[in-house]
Amino acid sequence: MKLWTNATVATMHPAAAQAYGLVTDAALVVDGAQLHWVGPRGALPPELLAQCAARHDCGGALITPGLIDCHTHLVYGGDRAQEFEMRLKGASYEDIARSGGGIVSTVQATRQATPEQLTAQSSVRLAQLLSEGVTTLEIKSGYGLAFEHERKMLQVARALGESHAVAVRTTFLGAHALPPEFAGRADDYVDEVVRMLPLLHAQGLVDAVDGFCERIAFSPAQMARVFDAARALGLPVKLHAEQLSDSGGAALAAGFKALSCDHLEWLSEAGAEAMAAAGCVAVLLPGAFYFLRETKVPPVELLRRKGVPIAIATDCNPGSSPCTSLLLMLNMACTLFRLTPEEALAGVTRHAAQALGLPDRGMLAPGMRADFVLWNVRHPAQLSYALGANPCIQTIHEGEPR
Ligand code: DI6
Ligand code: FE
Hints:
With 402 residues, this protein is of the alpha/beta class. Helices cover 38% and strands 22% of the residues. It has helices at 46-50, 81-88, 93-98, 103-112, 115-131, 147-163, 186-202, 220-232, 249-255, 269-278, 286-291, 300-306, 326-337, 341-347, 350-355, 381-385, and strands spanning 2-10, 22-31, 34-40, 54-65, 67-69, 134-140, 167-175, 208-211, 238-241, 260-263, 281-284, 310-312, 372-375, 392-397, 400-401. Bound molecules: 3-[(4S)-2,5-dioxoimidazolidin-4-yl]propanoic acid (DI6) and fe (iii) ion (FE). Fe (iii) ion binds next to loops.
């Protein structure tokens, strides 16, 4: 067993009396890939101390659970920097679409990319997330929009999880946008998504199923068909819901016991109630809100009142959130959405784990995965407070320093 001492530990345990589940002068005992004991050093049983062959002095660091980015589109081809530049020079969305920009340009670039090219550019983004203490992340498909390309994206995502010391959960987002070859035939494309899903699942590539429910994407009725197919395979679902309008997506997803509904700027009271009743997590994405210069803030007070757990994620994608910093999202969740730093940290630990259906991580307690981060800060609020700082000293993934 391994012992870690001389640290303040933010366990993020919900039942703790202290904010953040804070334990000062703490000790942490790791057995293999699992946490065995955590608490005040003075309470460490001597017989347990005797069993600790390796001992680490943390030099007064703060320890938090490993960070979890529960909503990313990390794997994609190309980028949209020129589109960003065109917009700032006055081009409209239509101008950009006519010149081959927008989401369709990412679909083209992703289809053209080889798995090696996708891996190379996605690894750079992954390294940036990992440098800030991310130990679990979700990666969605959704820029292939045809069987072989959706499969390629999911295979690259899986392989990234195998080649890096990080846990990757893959999500099939076939219902992200209408591919050009299906223009005017959205229902036919939904048939195609329903056909692809079991084939991808049979190859072990799908941990969950997502969709984009919006006037400019898929309707609740179309999403229900995709979710029926997921249910038939026993796969959990989640949904991009109420980002640009109140389309009733949250209530639909809650009806399917969705793990999470994501974005939610336009969430209604009825939608929040349905989510609360279904135990569905609200994943807020301040990077997309900021980058699209949205003005409608998600109803945080309503979520609190209804007891809906709130998670925070990067939404890392080329069109609406080209972001690879989960720490920056903590700050934006506080400044833009008025979350408290404690809520923000719970949003990238305990609640993010819940949004991925992973009860074995997101807090530091015996039996949990030994995923944790040492930070060069005095207090956990500093993680939300600083802009552009990266105080990560070291990340431990499944009990091993990485
Ligand atoms: N919501 C978004 O904001 C992005 N996808 C989604 O479902 C946009 C994706 C893109 O523009 O590439
Ligand atoms: Fe997204």
